[in-house]
């Protein structure tokens, strides 16, 4: 197993500056609200979609439990569609 010699911020800055890194940074691009992370954090859907403290607990579990450098909230991809003007009928 590779030993981390950089912090997540150092790793990202190095990548952005095209410098070498100790390992490839891992960032969630869609969402990390998995059942395992819900169990680990104690924050479950649907409350973790709308209650700020639960959103934070579930998002932070991606870093603390899964070891991902980045966290992401919200946990769905509808926010981007709505921001671009889409009207959604199946998600309330």
TrEMBL record:
InterPro entries attached to this UniProt entry: Methanogen_methyltrans, UROD/MetE-like_sf, Uroporphyrinogen_deCOase
Pfam families: URO-D (PF01208)
Recorded GO MF terms: methyltransferase activity; uroporphyrinogen decarboxylase activity
Record-annotated Uroporphyrinogen decarboxylase (URO-D) domain positions: 7-88
Keywords, in A-Z order: Methyltransferase, Transferase
Top-level taxonomic group: Archaea
Signal peptide: none
BP GO terms, sorted: methylation; porphyrin-containing compound biosynthetic process
Name of this protein: Methylcobamide--CoM methyltransferase
């Amino acid at each position: 197993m590779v030993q981390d010699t950089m912090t997540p911020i150092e790793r990202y800055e190095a990548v952005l500056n095209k410098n070498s890194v100790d390992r490839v940074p891992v960032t969630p691009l869609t969402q990390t609200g998995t059942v395992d992370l819900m169990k680990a954090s104690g924050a479950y859907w649907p409350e973790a979609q709308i209650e700020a403290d639960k959103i934070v607990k579930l998002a932070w579990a991606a870093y603390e439990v899964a070891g991902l450098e980045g966290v992401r909230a919200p946990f769905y991809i509808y926010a981007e569609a709505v921001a671009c003007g889409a009207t959604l009928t199946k998600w309330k």
